[in-house]
Amino acid sequence: MRAEKAFPTTFMCAMLNVSAPGFYAWRSRPPSQRVLDDAGLTERIGKIHTAHGGRVGVRRVHDELRRAGVACAHKRVHRLMHTAGLRGVHPKPYKRTTVPDRFDPALLGSAAGSGRWLDIRDRAAIAPIMNDRLALCVSKGFDGVRFTGLDGYLHDTGFPLTAADQAAFNQVVDELARGRGLTVTGDEDEADSVGTSTTSGS
User: Fold this and answer.
1) How far is CA 156 from the centre of its chain?
2) Which of 34, 100, 117, 145 has its CA 20 to 30 A from that of 190?
3) Could you give the CA distance from residue 16 to residue 7 in angstroms, rounded to a whole number?
4) How many CB atoms lie within 10 A of CB 149?
5) How far is the CA of 72 from the CAs of 45, 51, 60, 91, in angstroms?
6) In the Cβ-directed half-sphere of 86, how many Cα atoms lie within 13 Å?
7) SS3 state of residue 72
8) What's 154's DSSP letter?
């Protein structure tokens, strides 16, 4: 130890009011059971933390240990994680990145529930926005999407849509979603009515 090189052990023991034999006995004493238990628990905590990509915090780790039948206090998990330098990663605050008025007003038709029908004939204008929204789904951890409104050409959308228009648009969004690794579901009756095997829609 650096301190031992700077000062005699007997001098430091005298300053700390500790006997020299007691100090040497303490230094040569094997680790206590508590220390050994903490080491084993820390290793287990580290594996849980790594298995979850280093994202989980004290609460999640404590829950995992409890489900595995390991009895330990929340404060102990907190202490061991702090000592080991392990900490959870908090998700970033939600920030809305897509808004309805991103669509050109000329593309908005009649009301459809809480939204409005789109002029799906202009696929070049709509596809980039749909692609951005699918990217947002992926960033939030979704593994699939469900499209609705697959039979817009049968409704009063405000545009003279045809079954061919609908089928072509459905195919575009289906390919965009699957291209991002998302599973796609929709209303099979609507998809059949359009005469296409895709299950995506507007």
Assistant:
1) 40
2) 100
3) 13
4) 21
5) 12, 20, 13, 27
6) 26
7) coil
8) G
